[in-house]
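User: Can you predict the 3D structure for this chain?
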Amino acid sequence: MKLANETLHPAALYRGELRPGLMHAAVLTRVRYRCDRHGKLAPVLVGEPDALTELRSKSVEDDYGVLEADIPFPRAATDVIIFADAAAPRPTQSMTVGVRVGPYQQSLLVTGDRTWQRGPRGLVPSAPQPFERMPLTYSRAYGGKARSSHGELANPSNPLGKGYYLDEASAVDNPLPNIEDPRHPIKRWEDRPDPFGVAPYPPEWFLRQRHVVELHGEQGKLEIHPERGMFDRAHPSLSGQLVRAGDPVEITGTAFAPRLALTLPACPVEMVLRIGDRVHVRGLELEEVLLDLRVGLVDLSYRKLCSYDFVAHQPRSMILRARTGGSP
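Assistant: Here is the predicted structure, written as structure tokens:
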């Protein structure tokens, strides 16, 4: 089976054998929009600056995180990934960034730089330094590398962050994280919160692995559960739930806009699968919502899975075309 892509969006077909005689196929496509500060979306067409010309064939990395390459394996539901800076209209010691995308709703507590200082009752955070803008990256979240008798020990949930210490002496005059879950702010140097964020979350870090790997020590057995999100790419708090066309998006407290509100558009494409003399027309499911609020771009990726019995010499084809009543 081959893919005939009749749209202007990059796409790929992944195929394989589930078991002898039973095949599976997955079509993946990405659609890019330009977003203004009022939440108006406009498709970025071929030939325009920033137009998508291909899927991600390899990882893309910058100071805000790593976007992994596209792969054949599906995610548990819809990932939400955001590249953005928190921003206040005037210098502030702390602020909140709000995120609402369909069923996902969370807040990030963003605080100016602090260090642990000795007080009458032990270590306490210093007063936060005022700030106006701060990148929402994992280097600002809880984690990092702690000093130990065996050298540096990386926090398994976020080796890039700050605030991870193994003893009190190591914490003195050293930083706390800037980005926290407001429900679980750090109060003592020995607190061990999960790192919090909206950037892509690497699959090898512990928050992802603890969902998909089970170790049964007594039996000496290791179980892996890919269906629990092994191939998800967002922070676990922003993965695992399905986002649909028409769902609201609201992001507050970023440099792009104090309040950005928009509605997710309908998928502009559909899949036509021909197996022998049967024709199936199917819509695609939203797999990733990527909001790059540094530059005002919104990427939506869609995937559709199907399976079919292998019959030698049977005509088979898959077409990706503009959805009936949709845009190209």
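Helices lie at 168-171, 206-212. The first strand starts at residue 3 and ends at 5.
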